[in-house]
Amino acid sequence: MVKIKFEHKILISYLLVGGLWISFSDRLLIKIISDPVYMTEIQTYKGWFYVLVTGFLFYILLKKHLLKIRDAEKKAKESDSLKTAFLQNISHEIRTPMNGIVGFAGLLKENGLTKEQKEMYLDIITKSSDQLLIVVNDVLDISLIDSGNVTINKTQFHLNDFMEQIYSAHGTMLRDGFSLELNNTLASANHIVFTDQVKLIQVIDNLIDNAIKYTLKGAIEFGCEIKENQLLFFVKDSGIGIAPEYQDKIFDRFHRAEIETTKTIGGAGLGLSICKGNLDLLGGDIWVESKLGIGSKFFFTIPCDFVVQEITEEQKEDIEWEVSPGYVLVAEDEEYNFQYISRILTDAGINFVRATNGKEAVDICRNSLNIDLILMDIKMPVLNGYDAVKIIREFKNEIPIIAQTAFAIGDEKQKALDVGCNDYIAKPFKKDELLRKIKRNRI
């Protein structure tokens, strides 16, 4: 349907009403009135009536249009205000850990530091780096969700084991005055769910982190149950609570229950938006019940998609580490990245050889028989990682290839798998994550 512009609506309405009024009223008056003086008087009243009718009609149209403009203007101002507050908060959240990283890295260069001081400085740098990475990942996640570049990768896993792992991970990081409780009504140990495990853990982690952040002390409880053919998860806290007027807004982009809380409570304020975006992709829903000063209880649902078969051995990661006599080919052009990877491999007793570009990686694979895994960087000179993998697959189809890249926009993992990679790891990665990938894929 073609949308008519407002000014055209006004013109059409004016001509239509005027034309109809003149045509039908004049014909009727000529038939019943013959006195010219009386006709003139009637025409005057008729003109005023027309002016009043059209004026009232235009008033209605203009008011309706102006209300839309004013509403849009109000929303634009509110959006600008929220975006400004968001950017200020993001700036604070980036600069704060960067200050710790830059500051304490500089202090490490000083002479005369004790072992305890060095360990403390390194611990601060590590924690600040993790904090910075969380902010960057949140911004990238919300950008990917908004642009529609997120896909669902469903796998099967034991839901009870999954919940126990989350409980163990967060239970070790609680400060004094806190307790974490897992209330899981899924009694069967054989409940295997088929969904996107990464998205699910991201939602639960965000909600638990929020509960810890906004709770000074007390109990935090989370769990899962089956309700109306859906999996119903919840995270309950005894924190500061959320005012009723904010409860519908906290899941929107750039919104935060109280902007003032950014002065005392850290975080970019994107966690709940990411939760909602992920649950929309999973076909679920999220909502909150909260009272100020008492606490909040967040609920979310996903489709209840259980499977009967057991998890395959390939999906389990409890295999023993075995040192292979072969070599891992590290295709990496950035020197600092290579030094980091080489240190991890050396400490693990893994033999490796380096390629500084894609062509060199292809040549090494073509001429060497004892390469049993490839860590392939995607962005490299001469020949990029994707093209290098395609060529390698022409003569070595059995060798495992793990793509490693700092690209975060778009479905890079699926692209890597499509060209022939067996697995994918995103930079920055930690030591245990890399070794886990190598252990899972190595011949």
Secondary structure elements and their pairing?
Elements: H1 6-32, H2 36-107, H3 115-147, E1 155-158, H4 159-171, E2 178-184, E3 192-195, H5 197-213, E4 218-227, E5 230-236, H6 271-282, E6 285-291, E7 295-303, E8 306-307, E9 327-331, H7 335-347, E10 351-355, H8 358-367, E11 371-377, H9 385-395, E12 401-405, H10 412-419, E13 423-426, H11 431-441
Parallel strand pairs: 2-4, 9-10, 9-11, 11-12, 12-13
Antiparallel strand pairs: 1-3, 3-8, 4-5, 5-7, 6-7
Helix pairs in contact: 1-2, 2-3, 3-6, 5-6, 8-9
EC number: 2.7.13.3
GO molecular function, one term: phosphorelay sensor kinase activity
Protein name: histidine kinase
What can you tell me about this protein's structure?
The chain has 443 residues and is of the alpha/beta class. It folds into 3 domains: 1-148, Signal transduction histidine kinase, dimerisation/phosphotransfer (DHp) domain (Helix Hairpins, Orthogonal Bundle); 155-307, Histidine kinase-like ATPase, C-terminal domain (Heat Shock Protein 90); 319-441, Rossmann fold (3-Layer(aba) Sandwich), CATH 3.40.50.2300. 51% of the residues lie in helices and 17% in strands. A 5-stranded mixed beta sheet has the order 2-4-5-7-6, covered by helices on one side. A 5-stranded parallel beta sheet has the order 10-9-11-12-13, with helices on both faces. β12 (401-405), α10 (412-419) and β13 (423-426) form a beta-alpha-beta unit. It starts with 5 loop residues before the first helix and ends with a helix.
